[in-house]
Amino acid sequence: MDPILIIALAVSIIVTLWFAWRHQNLRRHLDNYSRELRQKDISKLPMEDLPVDVKDLENLSNAVNSLVSTLNNKLLAKEADRSRLATVLDQLTDGVLIADSNGQVQFANPAARRLFESPDPLGRTVTEVIRNHQLIEAWQRCQKTNELQSESVEIPMRHQFLQLIVIPDKHASGSLLLAQDFTRVQRLETVRRDFISNISHELRTPLASLKALTETLQTGALSDPEVAPRFLDRMVTEVDALTQMTQELVDLSRIESGQVKLELHMISPNKLLQSAADRMKMQAERAGLDLQVEIKEDLSSLRVDQSRLEQVLVNLIHNAIKFSHPGGKVILSAESSGEVIQFAVKDTGVGIPSDDVPRIFERFYRVDKSRAGSGTGLGLSIARHIVEAHGGKIWAVSVEGLGSTFFFTIPQSS
C-alpha cells in the first residue's frame, strides 16, 4: 500500500478520534453544568472552572435570555398601553367605530353601540350600523376622497342630535368614525334662544307702556286730576311686573346654585292646600273661576318648608287661572300614595299641546299660546327645583282643549 495513503488514513483516524473525544468531553461538561444549574443559582457558579466551550455557550445563553427579557418587557408595556386605551374607549361618551376597506366594522366601543342602538355591530357594514343616509354619505365621501368628513343630523324618532366625524385610515384603507351626541348642547341652545325670546318679549311690553304713559304725562296729562292718578297707577303696575320678573330670575339663580336653605317645619297637607287657596281666592273670583279644595282623608303631617311649597302651589294655581275660561274650575287635592303625599292642581282650561308637555318645566320655556298672558316662563322651573329640593317629583298630564293636571309628590319621611 502506498505509504502516503497510509499516513493520510492514520491522520484522518487520529483527527476523527480527537473530535469524538472533544465532543464527548463537551457533552460530559454540559451534563454536569446542567445538573449544577438545577441545584444552584447560576450566578454562584465559578465561570473560571468551566471549559472554554461551555463558557461560550453560557455567554450565548445569557445574550438570548437578555433578548427574551427585553422582548417580554416590551410586550408587557404594549399590553399595558392596550389595556389603558381599551379602558379609555370603553368609558368614552363619544361613539367610536373602526371599519376596514370593505366597510365592515372591526371595532365598536359601548358608546357607539348605545348611540346607534346596535348591540352587536362587529362584522356588519357601516351602512347597517348607523342607518342614516346623511351619515352614510359622509362615510362614503371619506372613502372616495380619502379626506376627513363631518356631518350633523337630527334623528326625530329619538329626539337626538348626532355629529359624525369620519377620519380616513391611510395605512389600512379603512376609516375611523367618531360619533358625538349633541342632544344636550342643542337643548341648552334652545333654552338660550327661549330665554332671549321670552325676556325680550316680557321687557318690551312694560317698557313700551311705561314710555307711553310717561310721555303722555309730560305732554300735560300730569295736571289732569282725573287722568294723572290712573296713569300713575298703571305705571306702578308695570313696575311691579318688572320687579316680579327680576325677583324670579334672582330666585331661580339662588335655587340652582344651592344658596336657598329650606326651613323645615311640620305642617298638614290639608292646611298647606287651604293656605294656598286662600291666597289665590280673590284672583280666581275675578277670573270667574270656581277654586275648590278637595280633602279626601286625614293625611299625616309633612316636614317641609311651608313658604316654598306654598310658592309651588300658588304658581300652579296662577297658571290654572290664567289659562282657564270664565265659568271653569280649579281643583286642589292631596292624597297618600305609598311613601309619598301626592298633590294635584287640576283645571278645565285650554290644555297644553302634547309636544310641549315634556318641556314646560324647563327654564324660560313657554307654550306659544301663552303669549296672550304675562309671565317669564320661570314659575314652573322654580316649582320643579323646590319640589326636587324636598326629594319629590313634579309632572303634568294635559289634553289640549280639555284642561291640565299638575302633580307633585313629597316623601312622608321628609
Mean pLDDT across residues:
82
Succession of helices and strands: HHEEHHHEEEHHEHEEHEEHEE
- The second-level CATH architecture of the largest domain is 2-Layer Sandwich
* Distance, first to last CA: 123 Å
Q: Class of the largest domain in CATH?
A: Alpha Beta
Largest sheet: 5 strands, antiparallel
Report on the architecture of this protein.
The protein has 414 residues and is of the alpha+beta class. The chain folds into four domains: 3-84, no CATH class; 92-181, Beta-Lactamase; 187-256, Helix Hairpins (Orthogonal Bundle), CATH 1.10.287.130; 265-411, Heat Shock Protein 90 (2-Layer Sandwich), CATH 3.30.565.10. 51% of the residues lie in helices and 19% in strands. The chain contains ten helices and twelve strands. The strands form three sheets. Strands 2-1-5-4-3 form a five-stranded antiparallel sheet, sandwiched between helices. Strands 7-9-10-12-11 form a five-stranded mixed sheet. A two-stranded antiparallel sheet has the order 6-8. Strand 1 and strand 2 form a beta hairpin. Helix 7 packs parallel to helix 10 (379-389). The termini are far apart.
